[in-house]
Amino acid sequence: MKKQQVLFNILYPNAYQPYVLQKIDYVFAGVLFFVSLFIYFLTLTPSVTAGDSGELITTVYNMGASHPPGFPLYGIVGKLFTFLRFPDIGYKLNIFSAVSAACAVLFCYLTLVKLLGFNRSVVGFSPVVHIPVVAASLLFAFSKAHWSQAVIAEVYAFNAGLTSAMFFVMTLWYEEIITYRDEENLWLAPRITLLLAFVMGLSITNHQLPVWYIIAWAFMLVPIIYLIISFKGAVFIKQFQERKFPLIMILIVVIMVIFLLVISAIKPDILFPEFGPPGYRLVFPQHVPYILTAILGGPVWLSFYVAQNSLYTASISRSRQDALHAIFWIVLAAVIAGMVFFLGGAHGIITSMPLIIMAVYQLIQKNDLAKETSKNWVDNFLFLLTWALWLFVFALSVYLYFYFRAKAISPLTEPKPLTWGDTQTLDILFNHMLRKQYPVGTDDYSNILGQIWAVIEYHFSQFGMINVLIGIVGIYYFFKNEPIQWTYYIIASLVFFWSIIDFINFEVNPRSLETQEVFFIQQFLIYAFFIAFGYQAILVLLQSLNKVKEE
After folding, report:
1. pLDDT tens, 97-115?
2. 424 and 410 Cβ atoms separated by less than 8 Å
């Protein structure tokens, strides 16, 4: 056995055979979607409900901003549902929630059948695969919190649908990369990667809860890349070393981005202490260039690197297409950098100059590309990463909906369409996006045990004690069957719980617990995954016992 294969064989001792979706799976997914939607329709709220429902309905109808972070994607998609031929505007938005919740169930099924069907030769219906998947999907569909949000005008059903879709695309992405791990030229699943980047960006424009699952996904990249490198051997490592300079530059850019985000968006009092008391959280106009540089810095630098590669290729091949590619990336990066200059004035120049200097130096230096390797996997990786980051930023640009809508509303005479805040300037828009009007959690963690128990009780109230216990069995069985995917969902759950504690630090009282429950709907989705594996473990055990009896 080759040394490079040791790690892979430890993780997957029974080989790696992803489950291929069949016609029966699309039938089951469609049936689950329509059954869930039918039950949601039967229990749909006829009009406006308490809480944020009235505000959300009003802002969707008026094309305005809701309370922070505004939920722009909810407003845009929800506006389409206002054109349905029903008399009550509230009922139309309730239908939007029902459809979103049913979509969450559909993607729950598709993700689960891929996970539970892994390394199983399944043709047609398989009891140990399809029964647990259907049961767990229905369990999630009619869990207390998810069902409650499926019948009212709220953002959480739509959020569950987007998160469930993101989990499904993540599964496809991972499967494709690992399946083609032995290709001579590293296969990076470009189409799925770009789709995943776009879905990730969109998911944050409805609610910011999915950001923690994206962070957890980034943690998952390290073992995957190491796994792939361990299969490629000396040539792969050699190509990696030939591109030391751009990789070092990426590390510098990442550090710069994190630093700029901290001093401009997370802890703005560090950069400009004169604007408020210690610990103030508001974003002022002077902070905007720093935030823009943090968001756009990575894609801009990578665009210059891709342009350099295209210029080098064009100089050898004399290809007009390669030359046009280089011009495209240079113009794109220059326009974005110029926009930061224009919007930020002196501050824009100060914040962007280090990045531009690095990018221009990268553009004119030739040492790295003078290497003999013409098909370096690092170049392909950085090219794909460039497109992925731009797609992610493009998806985030949905937030500009508030900026342009505020500009359109401003000259209108009173009474103007209702909207939350005047987001005509980027500093106010960032304050709205980043929920700056809300206080953050305190550093007092004396309630941590009560909060942990409250989250456990949430799961009991959704699924019942027996299913929660089956889910514990499923956690072990999941790990036994697919350790990498298991690692992702465990890390995602821990990161999510930590974020809720650190940023909200909710009180343990009936009113607070009732409010916080909807934040955990995505966690209930993940636990439904664990329950499905628990069901599968039980069915496999029963099958084994039957075989023993027959013998």
Report:
1. 999 999 999 999 999 999 9
2. yes
